[in-house]
Amino acid sequence: MSPARTASPDRAAGTDQAGAPSSASTTIMSARGLHLAFGQTKALRGVDLDITAGEVLAITGPSGSGKSTLLHVLAGVLVPDAGSVDYGGTTVTDLDEAARSRLRLHEFGFVFQFGQLLPDLSALDNVTVPLLLTGTPRRKALAAARDALAELDLAEHAAKRPTQMSGGQAQRVAIARALVTGPRILFADEPTGSLDSLAAERAMEALVGSVRARGASMVIITHDARTAAYADREVTVRDGRLTIGGPGGAASTAAAATTATTATTAGGPR
Ligand SMILES: Nc1ncnc2c1ncn2[C@@H]1O[C@H](COP(=O)(O)OP(=O)(O)OP(=O)(O)O)[C@@H](O)[C@H]1O
Questions:
Q1: Domain limits at 48?
Q2: What is the CATH number of the domain that holds 124?
Q3: Nearest CA owner, ligand 1 atom 7
């Protein structure tokens, strides 16, 4: 079993790692005192943030304020100069690149603005890839990928390559690819930024609906108020600091827990 797997919070609903009943507001990721500079540019200047199991958290803020940097540090893509990120009892920021890579592959999912699908592969093969990387046998991986595509209303497009689909369809393939491994946290960086408003709405409905149906958490960066409206909680980054929204305030956590508990597969805005 890889360190990434041992880092996972218990996947059985209702228990924590020690087997005790978990409250609906269990913190699954906790960041403290994050600082990161790129040369003279201080992208993060002391960020504290908690992510609760089952919550959809929007990170908003002006261009260049540090949103993507924060998301990449939380997801173990970047290592901060100071501060720590804890996930399920593992200090992500202490792991080496190989262990962080395993963690990303097994525990996290990623959706980016421009889907970043492999252009020469069909939708089905694109969604199958992460499962093959985690060691899932090919036949099982293909079946799971087909299910994920069907869930996003893409069954009839499975054989198409990304260039043969609309932007919205391709982005939904990217969502299926991010969800097919069953991530506990999905990190989405402007996932609808390249889409027109109708396609963006459809993609967000699919994304939030699928995340809630799985009881996963999502951290979503967005400039768009309509996208942020799907979140349970919103924090704002300015000049590398959180200016609105604390680590995971009681009121917002309770709201997120309520939403997670009562969530259906419908993913409409608040
Ligand atoms: N790899 C890098 N090298 C140098 N500077 C960087 C790098 N990545 C980010 N920065 C700088 O760090 C600051 C924060 O960037 P970041 O991408 O996190 O902002 P953002 O809020 O996500 O912006 P946007 O909304 O425009 O995507 C910016 O000043 C940016 O220019």
A1: 27-262
A2: 3.40.50.300
A3: 38
